[in-house]
């Protein structure tokens, strides 16, 4: 059986460095606010090319804290609107609702599955305060036209980088393409911890300070509380693990790209569509997507051939019970993606032989 994503094998491939980092923290007596977090924040900021990185508890917190901080800075407030792609993972949307703002769902482009810059302006109202882009599946959104729209209408741009560690747009890394970015280090992300973790990156000094303060109970000085803050921390253990894994991130992403290149070149089946413009040097392939009108039958066929696949995602956010106020929206591009998408196994430790087996199984599918 080829697993969709074999975390045990991936983490084994970091040994003995991984265990030695864990043991170093265990023996150090410092588990929060210590040197490991500081070192990781510095290295990850440098990696992304931005001034600040603040380690937080998870990816949802990272995005929520950015919006909370903008609220404390009086840049936005409850009732204001943030435009967000309709086909994202629900966390992007929940970060907006959690802060009392209103998500405004925008259709993606069918080829890239990222927010369609041509459909943003028609959604702007006097209450729009930001555009949240999601670099879905590891490919950056088309930032140039989005930045132009944001400048024209004085909007902030927030990046959801949870699937895009290391992705590049116009010679700059994801996390440094807008006003602020949220990362997740959920174990299965391209840069994954051994549990939860997240980070905010930005070049904005005031935003960075505000996020850090809110994430620490709203306090800069012990027992003095400026905001009604929360507790959202990256801990020493996760930071030490992430520092080990960060060293290999570019090589891992390169391996993902070479697997993706083979899939795109060698998959040929009239019932399956691979996005043709996948020969993208800057895409980090958190997910390798194929599309088929016979998705369920295809998934069954692959499973019978020993290949595990996943759907990203089976139900679009506006069809979720949690968001029933959006259920009557007509979002045909989004709905088609959710109906036809299937994700093939892709991870840096897959062997060439395994890739060949996946390709053969996909090509042998008939209706
Ligand atoms: C994983 C993910 C998140 C949330 O990250 P957590 O660390 O699980 O909170 C947010 N947005 C997207 C697009 C994601 O894939």
Q: Mind explaining what this structure looks like?
A:
This protein is of the alpha/beta class. About 35% of the residues lie in helices and about 15% in strands. The protein has helices at about 5-10, 15-30, 35-50, 60-70, 90-100, 145-150, 205-215, 235-245, 250-265, 295-305, 330-340, 350-365, and strands at about 50-55, 80-85, 100-105, 130-135, 155-160, 170, 170-175, 180-185, 200, 220, 225, 275, 290, 340-345. Helix 4 (about 60-70) packs across helix 7 (about 205-215). The two termini are about 25 Å apart. The mean pLDDT is about 95. The protein binds pyridoxal-5'-phosphate. The site of pyridoxal-5'-phosphate has 15 residues, from helix 4 and helix 5. Pyridoxal-5'-phosphate (PLP) binds near residues 186 and 196.
